[in-house]
Amino acid sequence: MTEQVKPAKKPKVPRQKMPEQSAVERAHNFYEVALGYDNDLALLEASRCLHCKKPVCMAGCPVEVDIPDFVEMVKKGDYIGAAWKVKEKNSLPRIAGRVCPQESQCEAKCVLGKKGEPCAIGRLERFVADYAAVHGEGKMPELPKPTGLRVGVVGSGPAGLTLAGALIKKGVAVTVFEALHELGGVLVYGIPEFRLPKAIVRSEVDELRRMGVEFKTNWVIGRIETVDDLLEKRKYDAVFIGSGAGAPLFLRIPGENLNGVYSANEFLTRANLMKAYLFPENDTPIAKGRRVVVFGGGNVAMDSARSALRLGAEEVTIVYRRTMEELPARSEEVHHAVEEGIKFQLLTAPLNIIGNDAGWAVGIHCQKMTLGEPDASGRRRPVPTEEYFDIECDTVIVAIGNAANPLVPSTTKALETNKWGNIVADLESGKTSKDRVWAGGDIVTGAATVILAMGAGRKAGLSMLSTFGIS
Amino acid sequence: MFEILEKERIGPGVNRAVISAPEIARAHKPGQFIILRTHEQGERIPLTVADKDAEKGTITLVWQEVGVTTYFMGTMCVGDRLQDLCGPLGKPTHVDKIGTVVGIGGGIGVAPLFPITKGMHDAGNHVITIVGARTEGLLIMTEDMRKVSDELLIATDDGSFGIHGFVTQVLQSLIDKGTKIDLCVAIGPVPMMRAVVNVTKAAKLPTVVSLNPIMVDGTGMCGACRVEVGGKTMFGCVDGPEFDGHEVDFDLLMKRLAMYKGSELIALNQFRESPRGCQCTFPGGA
Ligand SMILES: Cc1cc2nc3c(=O)[nH]c(=O)nc-3n(C[C@H](O)[C@H](O)[C@H](O)COP(=O)(O)OP(=O)(O)OC[C@H]3O[C@@H](n4cnc5c(N)ncnc54)[C@H](O)[C@@H]3O)c2cc1C
Ligand SMILES: Cc1cc2nc3c(=O)[nH]c(=O)nc-3n(C[C@H](O)[C@H](O)[C@H](O)COP(=O)(O)OP(=O)(O)OC[C@H]3O[C@@H](n4cnc5c(N)ncnc54)[C@H](O)[C@@H]3O)c2cc1C
Ligand code: SF4
Ligand code: SF4
Ligand code: FES
């Protein structure tokens, strides 16, 4: 677990590991895997930061958190001050500190990474934000007088929540409309409890509620009312669309509609949002496979595989077309998955799912791949070989990505979308082709990251405020 | 919100409730459904809006007790509240003046057929309704149906009421008589819809069916509700629930509906051992 390090001279202190549940233990429960730094570990880790004059780390953060300054405050033991420093740019630090792909963002740029290991910025961010949540309760930013302006927000994912926070702090009334019964978007229905406890998302939402943001759940825009209704009938001054990339993609191979075959969205929604791991205390069932195969190599695939394991699967295999090097998931998640005993069947493409007479999946028929020349994305392209084989299984989870859900774009007049169905919006301001309508997050960029969605919400908030003439 | 204002038992294991849901009542169109959750640990289940009153701000749900959620709802009373109610969902029925519409409802399917029949009737169509059940005691909403149908034909499998036989036989005799039919709408158990489609396929009558695949979110996010129509995979909740009956793969639908049989039984048995919720003896209740 924790490495024992004597406080040594600055550059000698190694990057501090975060205590976590052991792999054996955590593979069978839904509690959070990583346990977070304590004060001592945080102080040690912070001591490694050089407080650079030209903090290159900041350039790697999509929302430009003032990293050197907040880390400096940690060094002084001012954890709550440090948390406020982070919150100036990142309104959901407890979440970003847990799920940001730090190794390819802020930490990828840190100068310490050139010779050794980068400063553990994400872990420190998580530490100060958790600390402030536990010890600094009750302190609420002073809210200005209401401006009389009103904004409607479609979707309560990180994009919508960040925008709501940015506006309410400037006296703009905000109502968030959410299709599901819980608030938080992918943070509650997709990312599992063991990576991001739902209580944390709830506490962030509650903070917004205390500041006056109004939430309407079970409210599907495009069905109960449209974006045009929000503007014309409800007379909102502006609308922000942050409806995410929620439509699951399938491979369109034979057998995909057999029983036991799930989209990752369905599997994770049953497991997380509906807490099927508590069945039958909770009513929602889930197929607790014995042998589970997951298609895909991103965060969603890792989450599905690790959830299946925790639900009691004996063997979970990730089937991916390329090699370990190309896996798009956060490296920490891959590392955790390997430790927990998830198998990787690499350079493999599924051709069809084999079913029995009752309509249940019993295996997949696969083709071996090899790596060819790099493609447009710079990754080496998988090329089929003449080798074929079958994998036995009873559950298949398709985690190959999500596309834009067409419900909102298709029911909104004069809203431009691109050929993938994503809403066209200016990346700096979030403005769409439609007057008084902004959009941001996955619905604009396609499936991306939490911090990018938050960044988009923040930028759209600033753009709305400047349109309203509020600074 | 979502308070139960009226509740009655309208048949063995079949309940009807009027629920306060003003916004849904205002937005709802025939053919659409809601998804509800009774309580925090509950499952999300879809039910058709069987009727609504936009002015009073209420919707009517009619459900058959088949598993843990629907049995639990059977024990709920006037004054109880549903934790969540989301809707309206699904594409509305395409209601238009097309001529003669034959609606065919089997068992609990009569409830979802009602708003469509009403819509078709209001649009000026000549509406012939065929309702069927195994036996007289299982017939529901026949009086409601009578009010919105130009002709109402009732059939029971055992001949205890109305015509002795299946709804398909009644439909076949309409066709044999040379009745000019422009559209059939069939809602009921999967085997019944399949049988109706076999009749209408032979007679080349356009037929709409309303499918009831297992759903979770109802917004196109999860794909639990996959059905195959014309060889293509569709999502029942957003592309449907109504589809061209001649193109539907009913066999797949049947198999997918059985996916959680084992778990459903476990949940129901546990519920029966330790029932929960409102146990009062209010006359409108259980
Ligand atoms: C399993 C999984 C794991 C992931 N892991 C990571 C990770 O580790 N790190 C990371 O950075 N990113 C991760 N991501 C990606 C990240 O979660 C998303 O990029 C991010 O959540 C997008 O935010 P958003 O606000 O645009 O949309 P979402 O989070 O998708 O939220 C959109 C919300 O809008 C609602 N909505 C949709 N349509 C309507 C409508 N018509 N009316 C009302 N409401 C509507 C939805 O119900 C949803 O709540 C992961 C994604 C998944 C699926
Ligand atoms: C669009 C639509 C409209 C419907 N309208 C009505 C209606 O008006 N009246 C009515 O009585 N029933 C209706 N149903 C069916 C109803 O949803 C199921 O009977 C109900 O979900 C059963 O839940 P349970 O917990 O009581 O039973 P369970 O024990 O969970 O299941 C019993 C049966 O219900 C089916 N089922 C289970 N969960 C779901 C789910 N989430 N979605 C769909 N089916 C499920 C299973 O295939 C099984 O055969 C409708 C279904 C759909 C999809
Ligand atoms: S928000 Fe993400 S990228 Fe930015 S500093 Fe925090 S962990 Fe790094
Ligand atoms: S680049 Fe690294 S060492 Fe320099 S300020 Fe940023 S975190 Fe600290
Ligand atoms: S119920 Fe989830 S997509 Fe239809």
Automatic annotation (TrEMBL), chain A:
The keyword Oxidoreductase applies. The keyword RNA-binding does not apply. One of its GO terms (molecular function) is glutamate synthase (NADPH) activity. Residues 151-457 form the FAD/NAD(P)-binding domain. It is an enzyme of class 1 (oxidoreductase). Pfam families: Fer4_20, Pyr_redox_2. Residues 1-21 are annotated as: Disordered. Keywords: Oxidoreductase. Its EC number is 1.4.1.13. Residues 26-134 form the Dihydroprymidine dehydrogenase domain. It comes from the Bacteria. PANTHER family: GLUTAMATE SYNTHASE [NADPH] SMALL CHAIN, GLUTAMATE SYNTHASE [NADPH] SMALL CHAIN-RELATED. This is NADPH-dependent glutamate synthase. It comes from Desulfomonile tiedjei.
From TrEMBL, chain B:
[2Fe-2S] cluster binds at residues 222, 225, 237. The lineage of its organism: Bacteria, Pseudomonadati, Thermodesulfobacteriota, Desulfomonilia, Desulfomonilales. One of its GO terms (molecular function) is flavin adenine dinucleotide binding. It comes from Desulfomonile tiedjei. One of its GO terms (biological process) is pyrimidine nucleotide biosynthetic process. Binds 1 [2Fe-2S] cluster per subunit. Its cofactor is [2Fe-2S] cluster; FAD. Residues 1-95 form the FAD-binding FR-type domain. It holds the Pfam family DHODB_Fe-S_bind. It comes from the Bacteria. This is Sulfide/dihydroorotate dehydrogenase-like FAD/NAD-binding protein. InterPro entries: Cyt_c3_hydrogenase_gsu (IPR012165), Dihydroorotate_DH_Fe-S-bd (IPR019480), FAD-bd_FR_type (IPR017927), FNR_nucleotide-bd (IPR039261), PyrK_electron_transfer (IPR050353), Riboflavin_synthase-like_b-brl (IPR017938).
